[in-house]
Amino acid sequence: MAVLNKIRQRSIFLIIVIALALFSFVVGDVLNNLGSSSGSDSVIAIINGEEVDRNYFMSRVENMQRQSSGQMTNTQAMNRVWDNEVRSKVMKYQYDLLGLSVERDYMRDLLENNLASFDEFKNEAGLFDEYKLNEFISNLKAISPETTTLGGTPINYKTWTDFEQNVAVSGTQQAYFNMVRAGITGTLTEGELEYQLENDKVDIKYVQIPYSSIADSTINIKTSEINSYMKRFPSKYEVEASRDLVFVEFKEEATPADEELIKESLISLIEDKEEFNEAAQISETVVGFKNTQDNESFVNTYSDPEYEFDDNYLFKSSFSSKNADEITSLTENEIYGPYKDDLSYKLTKMLSIKNIPDSAKVRHILIPHIGALRADETVFMTKEQAKLRADSIYNILKRYPSKFKSLLSFSSDKVSNEKDGVIEFSFSDGFATEFKSYSFENPTGSIGVVNTDFGYHVIEILSQGKMQKAFKVATITRLIEPSDDTRDEVFKNKSNFEIAIASGGFQEIAEESKYNVRNVNSVKELDESIPGLGSQRSIVRWAFEDQTSESDFKSFTTPNGFVIVKLVNINESGIMSVESGSVTALPEIRKEKKSEIIKSRVRGKDISTIADNQKQTVKSAVALNMKNPTLAGAGREPLVIGTAFGLNEGEMSEPISGNTGVYIVKVTKITPATELNSYQAVANRVGKSKENAVNTQLYNALKKAAEIEDNRAVFY
How far apart are the C-alpha atoms of 311 and 451, rounded to whole Å? Predict the structure, then answer.
């Protein structure tokens, strides 16, 4: 009681202490968050001292993905944006060093070069008019954020300023590259050297003792020798950080029993059946697929959601070749199936058979309305108003078909308008269902109004192709998917394996359970795909997390089920391991050892004697030059041919270690190039070659020299 009384007496004091503690905790957390948001947590890269903001970068990645219309993964879009951003920052750094920028007059020249072909900026003489350009920009700014059109493309002030920025960047880059090119030339000395490399000729006799004359099995190579070789050529064996993984996949796949259940469920839909209505306490007849009159509703009810009723007529070629004969042999209301078609089971009912043309030639006038597909900002009519206009045009054409071309001005389809509104297409082409149905199911000469998602079409059928038998079917489709029991079994197996390997023995336990263990080596930090699993960025991120150690494992969900991944090796950046490097090092070390053995065996002061001793033949090569150091039948041998050019006529070389063997060369003839009065033409050619290399080599050199801190792996 005494303690409680003391607490009560000091309650105000305790409240203040607790409040201060909470306040300090909250303030500390806020300050920490502020610190992190202004530090590396908000910076995705630092390029030559300039930070790249995370939010800015991520928004560009999202835009890139949207623009690709789903053709790029997030990682692919990220890499594309990264390349663009690095190039932009690396080049900007150079521009800033030089004080290079696009001034007003130069900018106008650039805009004229880019826009001279647009009618919007031409005067009466058909020439580019700067006044019209200024007027266009002013109007665009005044109506912002509303859009207008330029060359038929919607544009607003924001897209215009982005365009100007791109033009400025491109112009600055061009100016920079031009400055570099201006300092590049081919000197007369370079011209003379190039001419001599091309035209100095030498004839030789030679003996080749191939490395293959010594069996690989006779060459012993120690691990220390491989290590020494790799240290001699460090650039060849430098690697970035990587991870080696193993994994076992647990796929959720349908079993034969699952497939039988799917087939049975489809069979149960064919005939009518009696079902007891619990609510009404009576038996009711449920109409089956065979007798239903509402085929569309039946298909949409019992098919998987993505397989809705298709009201189109189909040619035989539209059906799977495995089942086309059976389906097209059906009579009306007859049912075929269940049958397997790729990854699904199907039940098909024949609804109607008729002859229709395989192609059509029509012309149309498209009247769009607000909300119609591809309707631009200039469209102001409601759907009702568009219908009234289409009907009016139809009424005119019914009486005066010859007026069709004169009415094309009302059509928004600019592509077909260029062809007098004419469209030719085959039955299999992907046109709007309503447009297609009218064109193929009505006789030549018909004129009608058809409503599609694009608006109202006034269509005239000009001609039709060859008549073919076509079929309208109702098809119930069920994907072949694992049952709940199968999924539960897969999950249980995965969980049991996960528990079993907790104490080690990943490989052994997998083999005992007859699971297939897959190896994946040299996974890089920014990789996206895992061979055999596809896009699995989450696995790569886990493998590179600081808290993930060798022998750690983790379960991941995949589109096909689950996978348990184990981290086998952590390979740091630097020189690769001897084991990895031996793949390329061993052949080179063998070659070096074979070369020394062969050289020690070479005896004789005459090339014929050496050839005899080595059981080889003396070969000849004529008109060799340094520009193309190739020996017929032996390939490129620059060291061999270079050595020949260093010998006098009649002189024989010491043994030379070539690419394919050891060579002994004897010069039989030297033909110096004819001297020229001037080497300026060759010098110009050399200079031109250097200029052509600027675009690629210059940027690559600047990028290599740049200081780039890459934090992408933290965020992706």
Answer: 16
